[in-house]
Amino acid sequence: MSFGRPPSINVGFKTSPPDRGSFPLDHDGECKEQMMQYMACLRKNSSESTPCRVMSKQYLDCRMTKGLMERDEWRNLGLVNLEGDSAEPTRTPS
């Protein structure tokens, strides 16, 4: 008998991978600079993300390069052909 919790808490419990869009936190601050630039842009633009899309792309590129999220195509992330963006995605050496 278990007191204070449902009796089946340990029965049939299975772990599952995170949903798409979930990724590890940047505990070591590897992409902190890009994140701070993006957050400053959001504050400057009253949380309107459209003017900050290039910085969003730079932040996501850093996360993909550092292995903090799975690499994906920019078109899948809605970040292709951005005005003012000259950076191609950084590839990690194989």
TrEMBL record:
Lineage: superkingdom: Eukaryota
**Which intervals of the chain are annotated as region Disordered?**
1-24
Q: Which keywords does the record carry?
A: Cytoplasm, Disulfide bond
Chief site of localization: cytoplasm
The record ties this protein, via Pfam families, to:
CHCH
Family matches, as InterPro entries: CHCH, COX19
Where's it found, cell-wise? Cytoplasm
Question: Which residues does the UniProt record annotate as the domain CHCH?
Answer: 31-64
The record's GO CC annotations read: mitochondrial intermembrane space
Any Gene Ontology biological process: mitochondrial respiratory chain complex IV assembly
Which residues, if any, are the signal sequence?
Answer: none
The family line of this record is:
Belongs to the COX19 family.
- Give the PANTHER family listed for this entry: CYTOCHROME C OXIDASE ASSEMBLY PROTEIN COX19
What this chain does, per the entry, is described as: Required for the assembly of mitochondrial cytochrome c oxidase.
What name appears for this protein in its UniProt entry?
Answer: CHCH domain-containing protein
